[in-house]
Write a structure and sequence with these properties.
This protein is an alpha+beta fold. The protein has 9 helices and 9 strands. It has helices spanning 8-21, 28-38, 47-52, 77-87, 90-93, 129-144, 229-236, 263-271, 283-297, and strands spanning 148-153, 159-172, 177-183, 189-191, 195-200, 216-224, 241-248, 251-259, 277-281. 15% of the residues are buried.
């Protein structure tokens, strides 16, 4: 495991505590704030006590650092090679991000080193110049909350112009396609690969209103970490705002925030984990799970 969202947080937290300890007149409350801001909520019971008791000999009794210099966490060669391999992915290049520090690094792997099964062969043309230009214009519109106009062919083969507020992108691994999440029009999403032309909308005409911001809902799950359920859940919900808390051995609580329009998809994803994941709250989401299970049991699948 090269990077770990779950475990590396402890190293980053301790590094932050030591850095704060170098500041004059640092108090125990200041160090406690580092734990609350950087680590999991239950970490206040372990990290600071281990430092104060000298179990982790990194602080003196007066909470001053035992080190002579503030800690740094440079990337290893393996991490750099992994990042270089990811940076070579055409989908990453869509974001026009430069990695000059990796120019002399050999990638850990290339696309010739692996083969993806169970994926359609007609994926998006990620290296096409027009495709890249459309992606970056829409990405800029998302960041600046500007509406756009796109030209694409409808189901009858006729070219039409559609205007909307782009709210985000969604990538399908199975289809190998990028979809544009839309607001302010009657369509929920568009395939980016079908866009023929794209431009900012100047606001002229009857459609100038800005759509209301879609509200987010919260979901709390209990995860029993059998068969790497926690790792799979963190990857499965990687695109969502989330927070994980450890209860005891192999049990965790995962807090998620999602858009209401995605609720059906979230229900399906939660059910895919079977008995290893239990919905704690809200009760309305529990009822959605029950309703879907009842439909499945009666073979009235939807």
């Amino acid at each position: 495991m090269i990077f770990s969202e779950l475990y590396s947080v402890y190293y980053n937290t301790v590094a932050k505590i030591i850095a704060v300890a170098f500041e004059p007149k640092t108090t125990e409350e200041d160090l406690q704030c580092c734990v609350l801001e950087e680590a999991f909520s239950e970490s206040v019971l372990t990290i600071l006590p281990a430092l104060k008791s000298r179990k982790w000999p990194l602080l003196h009794d007066d909470l001053s650092p035992a080190l002579h210099h503030e800690p740094t966490m440079p990337l290893t060669t393996l991490e750099k090679r992994w990042l270089k391999a990811i940076a070579e992915d055409p989908k990453v290049k869509l974001f026009d991000v430069e990695f000059p520090a990796l120019d002399d690094v050999q990638p850990l792997f290339t696309k010739e080193d692996y083969k993806i099964y169970d994926q359609y062969a007609d994926g998006d043309p990620f290296e096409d110049e027009n495709y890249i230009r459309h992606f970056r214009l829409i990405l800029s519109a998302i960041k600046n909350e500007r509406p756009v106009r796109i030209k694409m062919k409808n189901r009858y083969g006729k070219e039409v112009w559609i205007r909307f507020y782009p709210k985000g992108f969604e990538y399908s691994v199975k289809d190998d396609k990028v979809r544009i999440i839309a607001a302010g029009c009657r369509f929920r999403q568009f395939n980016l690969g079908r866009v023929i032309a794209c431009e900012y909308y100047d606001g002229q005409g009857p459609w100038t209103e800005k759509p209301q911001v879609e509200q987010k809902k919260e979901l709390t799950l209990l995860i029993i970490n059998e068969r790497n359920t926690l790792e799979r859940a963190m990857l499965h919900f990687a695109h969502l705002e989330k927070k994980a808390e450890r209860l005891e051995d192999e049990q965790y609580v995962l807090h998620l925030r999602y858009y209401e329009s995605d609720e059906t998809e979230i229900v399906i994803r939660v059910l895919s984990f079977g008995p290893c994941v239990k919905v704690l709250e809200p009760e309305s989401f529990v009822n959605l799970i029950k309703e879907r299970l009842i439909l499945q049991k009666s073979c009235e699948l939807k």
